[in-house]
Specification:
The complex is a heterotrimer of chains A (355), B (381) and C (343).
Chain A: H1 4-9, E1 20-35, E2 40-56, E3 60-64, H2 71-78, E4 86-92, E5 98-100, H3 110-115, E6 116-119, H4 133-143, H5 149-162, H6 179-191, E7 197-201, H7 209-226, E8 229-234, H8 237-243, E9 246-251, E10 254-260, H9 261-266, H10 271-279, H11 321-325, E11 331-334, E12 337-339
Parallel strand pairs in A: 3-8, 3-9, 6-7, 7-8
Antiparallel strand pairs in A: 1-2, 1-4, 4-5, 9-10, 10-12, 11-12
Helix pairs in contact in A: 4-5, 4-6, 5-6, 6-7
Chain B: H1 31-41, H2 43-60, H3 62-65, E1 86-89, E2 92-104, E3 111-134, E4 138-147, H4 166-179, H5 182-202, H6 204-218, H7 222-232, H8 239-254, H9 256-270, H10 273-280, H11 285-293, H12 295-322, H13 333-337, H14 343-348, H15 354-377
Antiparallel strand pairs in B: 1-2, 2-3, 3-4
Chain C: E1 4-17, E2 20-33, E3 37-41, H1 48-54, E4 63-77, E5 80-85, H2 94-99, E6 104-107, H3 111-114, H4 121-132, H5 137-150, H6 156-159, H7 169-181, E7 187-191, H8 199-216, E8 219-224, H9 227-233, E9 236-241, E10 244-250, H10 251-256, H11 261-268, E11 317-319, E12 325-327, H12 333-342
Parallel strand pairs in C: 3-8, 3-9, 6-7, 7-8
Antiparallel strand pairs in C: 1-2, 1-4, 4-5, 9-10, 10-12, 11-12
Helix pairs in contact in C: 4-5, 4-7, 5-7, 7-8
Classes of the chains: A alpha/beta (355), B alpha+beta (381), C alpha/beta (343).
Chain lengths: 355, 381, 343
Amino acid sequence: MTNLVQSQSSTLTGVNNDNLMLDVKNLQLYFPITQGVFARVQGYTKAADDVSFFIRQGETVGLVGESGCGKTTVGRCIVRAYEPTGGEIIYHRADGTTVDLAKLQGDELKPYRRDIRLIFQDPYFSLNPRMTVFEIVSEVLKVNKLATPAEMKDRVVALLQRVGLRPEYMQRYPHAFSGGERQRISIARSLITSPRMVVCDEAVSALDVSIRAQILNLLEELQADFNLTYLFISHDLSVIHHICDRIVVMYVGKVVEIADATELFVNPRHPYTEALLSAVPITNPRDRQAVGRIRLEGEIADPSNPPTGCYFHPRCKYAQERCKTETPPLRNLENEHFVACHFSEELELTNVQLR
Amino acid sequence: MAQVPLVTDPSIEFADPFDKAEHTQAEVASQWKLMWWKFKRHKMAVVGGIVVLMFYLVALFAEFVAPVHFTSYNETYVYAPPQEIHLLQNGRFSPYVFGYRFERDPASFKKTWFIDESVIIPVGFFVSGEPYKLWGFIPGNWHLFGSKNPEEPFYLLGADKSGRDVFSRIVYSSRISLTVGLAGVTISLLLGILIGGISGLVGGAVDNAIQRLIEILISVPTLPLWLALAAVVPLDWTPVKVYFMITVILSLIGWTGLARVVRSKFLALREEDFILAAILDGVPRSRLIFRHMIPSFLSHIIASVTLAIPGMILGETALSFLGLGLREPVVSWGVMLRETQKVTVLATYPWLLWPAAAVIIVVLALNFLGDGLRDAADPYQ
Amino acid sequence: MSDTLIEVNDLKIHFFTDEGVVRAVDGVDLTIERGKTLCLVGESGCGKSVACRAFLQIVHSIGKIVSGEIIYHRRVDNNFEETIDIAQLNPKGRQIREIRGKEISMIFQEPMTSLSPMYTVGNQIMENILLHTNLSKEEARQLCVQLLDQVGIPQPHRLVDEYPFRLSGGMRQRAMIAMALSCNPTLLIADEPTTALDVTTQANILDLMRNIQKEYQMALLFITHDLGVVAEIADTVAVMYLGKIVESGDVDTIFNNPKHPYTQALLRSIPKISRTREKLDTIQGMVPNPYRRPGGCPFHPRCTQAMPECSTMVPSVTRFSDGHTTRCLLYENITTKQFAELS
């Protein structure tokens, strides 16, 4: 199933290549910054800059970071809403063969766009207000001629029921639904093609607390039922921790840390991860006196004009001279715990006390 | 779509177990229904719409609505003032107007009109009068209203310098004034959507070129162009044909505003999540444009057209008033208003200004209608 | 001289729309203490923002305060207090304009909607200062720089002349806070001020608000849907559901001894960062359509402990010790007993 040549070219060393679904290698997406009437290119915004991580069959990988860190960009490159500037997105098909999604063009992408689906953050903008629920959910089947009209209806009815919506609702327009119901429609649309993987881009961030829990539970049930693999993009660490098996932390277009979910919370090895964990609101007022909560100073770096060396060094309280000049590589500390920091071994970082 | 059979499995947990399966009206309403409901709430727009509809109906049935033809004249009643309609005669409903008498100034020989209360001219609805051919081929002599005896004078809004009925002329004028620019508006509209659409959808160098072209066209001054065009058209053309051709030519440079709107709509839509979702669903380009993109701003286009027609009416009025547009013997509101250019005429015979009232009413009504349509255009807010 | 700053009694605000009347706020009682933080928690559409806008008489035009009072204990000097019922004031009147932006100020979720893009940050803060005080322009500018420094804006001398769009989300929110502080308010109302921000920025803004509250000795009314934020900042908490306060009490009681089934369910539905990952508890169903409000207790269709009488009887307030109150029939002993006898 695995390919020796590929694993050698990967920047992530020591990865167990079994059961891979997606292997993102050195993914780059640069948006040109243009100026003037003739659109001269002045520079590039590096929305994704040498991003490498991997997703195994059936697991949920979380992609976390502040807004502007490039997590949404990476998700959209994987579904090929954007064309990457460089790098590879190796997709392992069900039959074990691989294909580089980053190199495909036009109609070549069609089968993979049915395998890898996207759920958007805001269900108010992702559903066409001028189409009924049935039209929205079934459109992909219709335009790709994947089902007869009768089959289409059966599948939509079955799927709407599965996501907790009455099939009678399929003649309604999106404006008749609440945020939670709309997100269920979005989920139905993404699952109608029987995908293998779903990219959830902040899929629960716009929802109320009680509705968020419903949707998270639904996503977990669906994962078990349909044997799905999730890439879960969120800025909310409590949600990420709840749903993810492994977590990828990004900062200004770069991956700074990858680890198993519990490992990341208990044993963070990057100062940025430490700060992120520290900023998560407490769940009980009795924890207010907790010591060592870290506050990040300054603003997130500008991806069109990032700092030298480690992008995080201007905000890092452990920064040394070396951080200003030398970009730390993403390296495997142990057991697939990757970190991009020169001093991971020496630093004593605050973790989260798990109960 | 057919009613879906209820196949609900009782073991299935619904997101909202307490909501009833039946729909309220609003929940299954399409975009157009929602727009109509929202439009109906805008009272001024509804009134505006009715007024506009009435104006176009009057234009359509001008021969029937006008008591006399616009060329009918009677030199006896030159500059006769408007007559007031009295509804009751001896306590019974029987509308009538008083007749005229005049005195001639012995020095200037000018007629001075007086209402002669001793002469009663009965008027009524659906009277037979001057024969006409509706739309040029249906003969008839019934008029919506008029004096019961066609020989008696009836000048609801007074008479002009040749003793022609101002009201009838306003009615016939609406035909030209309300329609002569429509072709121009339509051409502007089609060009605007097409070129704006190409600009917004193709982007890149094409977009850049179109934007520069628009900037050049916007800077062309319209009035001198109009003068030049009026001077170069063949002399044997009728005034209406000349005017029509000029509006068509002008529409070739008048599409720029709409093109910019359409372009910006397409550009904004390209960033919408539901468009990206459709692209990822593999929706082909043509379906993406016609099923997803255009429906979401079609209503805005309808509204902007409604708001473009008043411009066309005002344009006709202004240009004819200046003598650049239509000329006698064609009758339009602008042509009629040309007679009021002299202050002395205006001071002595103020009823010649009535065509201006028609212009104001129809332009206001169209603006209200357009406002209502624009507000209703996005029912999802 | 009481410590109470604002008392809200049975406040009702209804929205008169074409589709019918929405009882957005349906009998709310609240007490805000001087110098304390009250968090008003609830899901979207529960009426929490509407209620707080009434404190400044800036309810949306289709909304009307139909009954109830908002008693503002205004301290004129150190030993005299006058009471004003804000609910009775004319929204355009002189008296509310004196209070608005001076004694009671407000910050919003999206600072860009309340900062004008046409004026510099300094201009907008100075305008508020000049409106409410007798300071000269020069003094106002100095105060403005001082305020910006205080809310943690770097290089305040330079940023005072910047336009809002040049600032990041967190910086804009800081500028808004500076503007709200400019006249030394007795109450700051913060409507979801951190919801649009990143966690790291949110943590900083919460720290800032805690510090300025201590410094200015002002009361803080914090509106949020995020229980994590409540746990961080509240002294007392009021939980709102469909226009009613279903439970209120001090923050420790609400988090560790909640009584109302809604509060309990809400607390259970937030993902906790713990070693074991269990299925999240959820509240079944969703917030009902405002035009189809359930009768009786508004929460009963979603409540796991609902009894038959919950659909008909509107629960009244049950008081526990220490100002802990709830509206739930489970705790109305006498009534439930009566019902037991009846059935």
